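help with this.
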Amino acid sequence: MTPQTIADPAPAIPGIRGAIADRFGSERGLVRLALATAEQRVGLLKETRDINWARVERLVYVCQGNICRSAYAHVLSANEGVPVASFGLATSADRPADTLAIERAHARGVSLDDHRATRVEDFAFQTGDLLIAMEPRQIRKLRAREDTAPQMRTLLGLYCKPRFAHLHDPYEQSPRYFDNCFSRIDRAVARIHQLWQASRPSR
């Protein structure tokens, strides 16, 4: 199911700092986006663009807590019947989605009510997993784990237009930023679905 147009858009925060918070999460989010974009342009994130989609059997969304970004992306893929899983790199097992994430997802016609977080320590990796992170630092953490060595890794925000090499965590940020972050995830997940489906025309 394609997410609906937001029924009750969150109010914007006034002022320049408010505009940055609404669009990028925070000033730190803007700085991290600039640094991530530079990393991408100089080739430090080359692996995130070299994806053999024919080898992808399952989409695995990765973020910090598995209660906002990866939780939302997980449900989007599950709603389309795409093989999907998700986990957090620093979370608690069975933690529910963030309250504001649930609220803003509901405004888009997406339910996070039943989502429960999975820790990376409890996750069962499979052949053909594509690990889809939100930030370059999460890619680096995945690289450092022996159990993720065989998996391909990419960044979710590279698949939306405009590209976002860093999708800043909306946790404890403004409702408007949640809406903007989820809109980027909507576009990126839709594009990933297109690429995945195109790679298996005979299936």
In short: Strands lie at 58-63, 84-88, 129-133, 152-155. The chain has a mean pLDDT of 91. Residues 175-198 form the longest helix (24 residues). The radius of gyration is 16 Å.
